[in-house]
From TrEMBL:
Protein name, entry field: HTH luxR-type domain-containing protein
Keywords from the named record: DNA-binding, Transcription, Transcription regulation
Cross-referenced PANTHER family: DNA-BINDING TRANSCRIPTIONAL ACTIVATOR DEVR_DOSR
Keyword DNA-binding: yes
Domain (HTH luxR-type) ranges: 85-147
SMART domains according to UniProt: HTH_LUXR (SM00421)
InterPro entries, per the entry: Sig_transdc_resp-reg_C-effctor (IPR016032), Tscrpt_reg_LuxR_C (IPR000792), WH-like_DNA-bd_sf (IPR036388)
Keyword Transcription: yes
Gene3D superfamilies assigned: Winged helix-like DNA-binding domain superfamily/Winged helix DNA-binding domain (1.10.10.10)
Species this chain originates from: Blautia hominis
Length: 147
């Protein structure tokens, strides 16, 4: 039943029905938390991160919810790392990868912009996309991740 609710939630989220998606996620959480069954929810994190990270998601066990969120984030970054290793796949476009590599070298946004002859705003926007795709929070996190 848990996978059915998660699949329904993913469909609702894809259709833009956040309220319905949130209801299905709450059902899944209510049934998963007593037995600490977190992995199925983590498997759906890519499709349901917006719902799971939504402050409007109410949950009686905030600690368990935070565990699920953390596991989901690790699941996404781990999956990306495995795909990159096995298939040479990266979730980043070639330009995003270029910017990420320069950021990994600790160049500032302005320095990256100058080197690539683009605006600092473009670099900043691209870095935000990179962080989202890699499920990280900033330049310092780039040092510890393969992409």
């Amino acid at each position: 039943m848990l996978y059915i609710w998660l699949e329904q939630a993913a469909c609702y989220e894809e259709d833009g029905s956040r309220v319905m998606a949130r209801e299905r996620v709450q059902l899944a959480l209510t049934h998963a938390f007593p037995d600490e069954v977190y992995l199925p929810i983590a498997e759906y994190y890519t499709n349901l991160s917006g719902v799971l990270e939504d402050p409007a998601l109410s949950c009686k066990d905030e600690t368990a919810l935070e565990r699920v969120r953390a596991l989901g984030r690790r699941f996404v970054s781990g999956t990306a790392a495995v795909r990159a290793e096995l298939f040479g796949y990266s979730p980043l476009t070639s330009r995003e990868r270029e910017i990420a590599l320069l950021a990994k070298e600790r160049l500032s946004t302005r320095e990256i912009a100058e080197r690539l002859v683009i605006s600092p705003a473009t670099v900043k926007n691209t870095l935000n996309k990179i962080y989202s795709k890699l499920n990280i929070h900033g330049k310092s996190d780039l040092l510890n991740i393969r992409f």
